[in-house]
Amino acid sequence: MIRSTRMNRRTLLQTGVAASGLVLAAPSVLRAQSFPERNIDVYIPTREGGGADRNFRAFTAIWKEKLGTDFEPGFYPGASGRVGYEVYMGRAEPDCYSLVFGNMGPEVLNWAVQRPEFDINDYFYFGRVDTDPGCLFVGAESPYQTLDDILEEARTRTMSVGTSRLAHPASIGLLALGEETGTNFNLVPLSGGRNTVAGAVTGEVDFSVLTSGSVIASGDSTRCLLVFGENKVGERLNNAPSINDAFDMNLPEMLSSRAFGIHRQAAEDFPDRYQRLVDTFHETFDDPRLMDEYVAARGTPEYLNEGDVEDCAEFFDAMLELGERFRPMLTGG
Amino acid sequence: MGDTLNILGEVFLNTISHWWIILPTIFVGLIVGGIPGFSAANTIIILMPLTLAMDLETGLIFMVTLYASSRMGAGIPAILVNIPGTAGAAATPLDGYPMSKAGKGQQALAMSFVASSLGGLLTTVIALATMPLLARVGFYMHSVEMIVVMLFGISLIAAIAAQDMLKGLIAGFLGLMIGSIGTDVIYATPRGTFGFLELYDGVPLIPALVGLFAVSEAFVIIEKRVILSEDGEVAMKTPNWRDTFEGVRMAFARWVHVIWTSLIGLAIGVIPGAGASIASFVAYQQSRTYSKTPELYGTGHPEGLIAPESANNGVTSGTLVPLLVLGIPGGATAAIMLIVMQFHGVNFGPGLFEDNPQVGYGMFMAMMIAYLFMILTILPLSRYMSRVTTVPTIYLAPMIIAFTLVGSFVPREYMFDMYLALAFGVIGYIARRTGYHVAAILIGVILGPLLETYFMRALRISEGDVMVLFSSTLGNILWVCLVLTLTLPLVFDWRRKRKEILGK
């Protein structure tokens, strides 16, 4: 069959619309191809030199090669991470050149306790880097060397428990343990992981709860007795059982989980840029060098754990729900 | 014992052989310590890729030397131009700067260097010898005990207020109110932030420090040709090495004072979380309390300079104790050391001295040798450093403002902090011109939030029972000491006046 090549009015209109579309779309296509044209600014709501900093540097050491540009961190600590998010949401342009790198566990939990100035739906996390379960631990010289010791004592009095901040997944894990065993614990915020370990080791508090990565890093000074999630590292957490196994519970994992977030408006206005970020984030996880970088930055290899936008959204919602449930205990209200 | 001595000897020789890293690091430390906003912790973070690339011993010696020398460096601008490089040197200008204005900057610097080095050296040796015992201090010094320690420092406000009680107390309370700005320590509820995000984490110390001391000082000195007094100008006209030796002699003549104030620093340094700012204020307060001439403090009294400098260098070695023995970093710099050492596969904690004794002993040895090198290398520089005081204020004041404003920007990189420093500068200027003491404001700003943290923590642990404040034996002993500290000077004063009256 010979196709007619004669231009009729319909063909002309169709071709015209297609051409116009192409012309209109060209800048956006070209922009996507050329994205990124400059470095990506990353807002980190904790202090320089901490776990988030190390984690960020390890991950972006590989990601920058995939994306073809560098990442510039800015550190904005304060108010349990709130300052960093407020600065990101209030001052950074929503153009995919600005990201936030936070800890979804405690920081989202914080939104349930202290609502920020911005609408929390105006940003979302699209790439999870790791998951680190919270745990319960004692100092090496503590009189309580087993979980049974603690529960026995907790039935006779309210025990004091150190935590890095009230709105923390590990705090929720402890409150859930209290609910399950009918015991009362008095959470004492000790302002940061370092002080939380010190509180347990020196006996200022009866014991502490914290992310397990920090407890592993404290070495022989501490002894882990319970994990609020799966114990993926065995001996390094003293073979402590998970709370669900020990008490036949069905508690979601109480995780600290570092992830990259972005303005929702940026993802909507620049879908191709956003897609490029997502694709290259995923490619980073496919690169075997990432594990080397992560381990070199003192990360626990078992905790490196990719999550996509759906995983992050699911975790985000779960944290908000738990925050609402335990809100009175976390706010003193 | 024999094995330990062998290890110590081996570590000593090894550390000495690293002189090529110790010497340049001392000068880097002096510079970063002397510029407000920079610090050993920031510098180690910035240089972390370099530190991680070094072998373990070199990295360790580099960090420890930087830590010790930056502590000493912070005192230099505090003495010469009334700008403490860090909060740990905030008590240094109280007597150091009046000495400089009187043309005794060279003596003051030499005295400060000797007191710092001797204090640091002595406490390092003591820490090395009594490490297992010192590590136990943290097991007894909890929130309740720390509240009393804070009150020792805060009571300095009352001592400053002694010259004009009402103005002193107003200044102190203003400082405490400013210190309470920020989110509360339990529920992270913002208080008094006026909607400024930059204040959620509390009033940043460096802008407050440089504003109250440096910027306000610049406003004051611009009204004069030089910062020196008339006598000071005469004294500075003929600089000579004798002044340096006089400073050295003044420090050595007060060796007992150096020892006991550095021991205060060591005792506070071994408590995880306590820092040099607490130690220097407490040491100054204690020094003044038990002095036979308390009225001379604040006028350029040598003991008023020795006390904070010995104490804040005593903290340096103290901080290493909980890090090495318990695996708990006592401060920001120690926390970064922990990260770097862990990168090299060294785990701190109870097993360190069995698994890696060279590392454990090596850190103390590095600190001792750094202090020895420091005293030899820095002392000759005091003659030249003190010439800063002769620079005409039309050059000096703008330089002070420019440098310190940049310094206030550095820690957080907020423009807001520069404006804040200027605002504190205006507050400081008004305070100086109307007879209020800026040091009293600053004590409140620095120690107020710490006091609140320990107080709220103690109340939280006791579930709101105020009697927790008197629940520990050590705490009660400290309470008694505090009461004695506050009342004894009054008794001594009363007895002295009585004697005078009877004598007449």
List the helices and strands and how they pair.
The complex is a heterodimer of chains A (333) and B (504).
Chain A: H1 9-34, E1 40-44, H2 51-67, E2 71-75, H3 82-91, E3 98-103, H4 104-113, E4 123-130, E5 132-139, H5 147-154, E6 159-163, H6 169-181, E7 185-189, H7 193-202, E8 207-211, H8 212-217, E9 222-227, H9 243-247, E10 255-256, E11 258-263, H10 264-269, H11 271-286, H12 289-296, E12 304-307, H13 309-325, H14 327-331
Parallel strand pairs in A: 1-2, 1-3, 6-7, 6-8
Antiparallel strand pairs in A: 3-11, 4-11, 4-12, 5-8, 5-9, 5-10
Chain B: H1 2-16, H2 19-34, H3 40-46, H4 48-53, H5 56-73, H6 75-81, H7 93-101, H8 105-129, H9 131-135, H10 137-140, H11 143-161, H12 165-179, E1 182-183, E2 190-191, H13 205-221, H14 230-237, H15 241-253, H16 255-269, H17 276-289, H18 302-326, H19 332-343, H20 352-355, H21 357-378, H22 382-385, H23 393-409, H24 415-433, H25 438-461, H26 473-503
Antiparallel strand pairs in B: 1-2
Helix pairs in contact in B: 1-21, 2-5, 3-19, 5-18, 5-19, 5-21, 6-7, 6-8, 7-8, 7-18, 8-15, 8-16, 8-18, 8-21, 11-12, 11-17, 11-25, 11-26, 12-25, 13-23, 13-24, 13-25, 16-17, 16-18, 17-18, 23-24
Overview of this protein structure:
The complex is a heterodimer of chains A (333) and B (504). Chain A is an alpha/beta fold. Helix content of chain A is 47%, strand content 20%. Chain A has two domains: 38-131 and 257-331, 3-Layer(aba) Sandwich (D-Maltodextrin-Binding Protein, domain 2); 133-247, Periplasmic binding protein-like II (D-Maltodextrin-Binding Protein, domain 2, 3-Layer(aba) Sandwich). In chain A, the strands form two sheets. Chain A has a six-stranded mixed sheet with strand order 2-1-3-11-4-12, sandwiched between helices. In chain A, β1 (40-44), α2 (51-67) and β2 form a beta-alpha-beta unit. Chain A is elongated. Chain B has one domain. In chain B, strands 1-2 form a two-stranded antiparallel sheet. The model of chain B has no long low-confidence stretch (mean pLDDT 85). The chains are: A alpha/beta (333), B mainly alpha (504). Chains A and B meet through α3, β7 and α7 of A and α3, β1, α19 and α25 of B.
